[in-house]
């Protein structure tokens, strides 16, 4: 890799980082384990639904999985369902040739397993209403997904955080489900998400070496405006509050378990030689993280108070 005294253009960054992409792709392929969605689904638990085959209609009594876990499972699945839009976004930015293109297609193939496996599990286990789920899928996919972060650096920064956030959301959903099949499946999916995070995180680390100031700005812009890719799901705000109240994914986890570990890995607050905008971006980032810490503390206080009231009344959240 070479370093210039001026900001790199996107085309230059794609060219300079291609050897890093190739190396990270080789590492990923050597590390990733082959797995098969059908092996994680308890098929013998399934039975025919109503409709053209004349089976049994879905009923809430069909499942013992807690409601908040089902809400989270649906949010996670609908997020995975938008894969065609995600593929379009990264293929448009990274290209479909060379190491970049090989990674784009490999990533898409691996992500495709997640939606397949979760939907099969939900259908066979009767955890959710399949009619409502299909209608939600149609509504969400008709909306599609378009990145709010222009340029390769911002997209790399976004997916570095988003893949880790998704890993945590999957793992914690499995834990609160109370179903060992669900937990095993989501742990397997979370392992994929972690490898994807490592790929993107390492790639952005290389970009920091090439163009630290421009990359610092990109990271700050992403952190201060971050939203999960499923934010366009109908009723997402209400669903995300329920998920946060259950401790599946909340503002504290976002700051302490997603943002901070990645930022520390990049050593962003130790980088020297930033230009004026790079320094401003770092200051903005530090201020935002402090604000997020305070917001997380306030949320935790409200949640603890609400849990105490619920316990006193003998009810659940």
From TrEMBL:
Keywords: Fatty acid biosynthesis, Fatty acid metabolism, Iron, Lipid biosynthesis, Lipid metabolism, Metal-binding, Oxidoreductase. Its cofactor is Fe(2+). The keyword Metal-binding applies. CDD domains: Acyl_ACP_Desat. InterPro entries: Fatty_acid_desaturase-2, Ferritin-like_SF, RNR-like. It comes from the Bacteria. The keyword Lipid biosynthesis applies. Belongs to the fatty acid desaturase type 2 family. Homodimer. This is Acyl-ACP desaturase. It comes from Microtetraspora glauca.
């Amino acid at each position: 890799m070479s370093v210039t005294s001026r900001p790199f253009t996107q085309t230059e960054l794609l060219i300079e980082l291609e050897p890093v992409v190739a190396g990270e792709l080789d590492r990923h392929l050597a590390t990733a384990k082959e797995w098969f969605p059908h092996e994680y689904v308890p098929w013998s638990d399934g039975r025919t639904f109503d409709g053209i085959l004349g089976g049994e209609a879905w009923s809430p009594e069909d499942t013992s999985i807690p409601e908040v876990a089902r809400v989270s499972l649906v949010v996670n699945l609908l997020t995975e369902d938008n894969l065609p839009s995600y593929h379009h976004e990264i293929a448009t930015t990274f290209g479909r040739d060379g190491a970049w293109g090989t990674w784009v297609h490999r990533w898409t193939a691996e992500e495709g397993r997640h939606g397949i496996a979760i939907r099969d599990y939900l259908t066979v286990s009767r955890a959710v209403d399949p009619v409502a789920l299909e209608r939600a899928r149609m509504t969400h996919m008709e909306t599609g997904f378009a990145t709010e972060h222009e340029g390769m650096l911002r997209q790399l920064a976004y997916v570095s955080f988003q893949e880790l956030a998704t890993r945590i959301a999957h793992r914690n959903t499995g834990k609160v489900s109370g179903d060992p099949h669900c937990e095993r499946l989501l742990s397997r999916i979370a392992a994929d998400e972690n490898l994807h995070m490592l790929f993107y995180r390492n790639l952005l680390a290389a970009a920091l070496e090439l163009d630290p100031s421009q990359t610092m700005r990109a990271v700050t812009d992403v952190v201060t405006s971050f939203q999960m890719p499923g934010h366009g799901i109908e009723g997402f705000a209400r669903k995300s509050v329920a998920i946060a109240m259950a401790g599946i994914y909340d503002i504290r986890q976002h700051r302490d378990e997603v943002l901070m570990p990645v930022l520390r890995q990049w050593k962003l607050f130790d980088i020297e030689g930033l230009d004026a905008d790079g320094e401003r971006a770092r200051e903005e980032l530090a201020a935002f993280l402090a604000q997020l810490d305070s917001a997380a503390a306030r949320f935790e206080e409200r949640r603890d108070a609400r849990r105490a009231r619920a316990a006193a009344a003998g009810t659940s959240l």
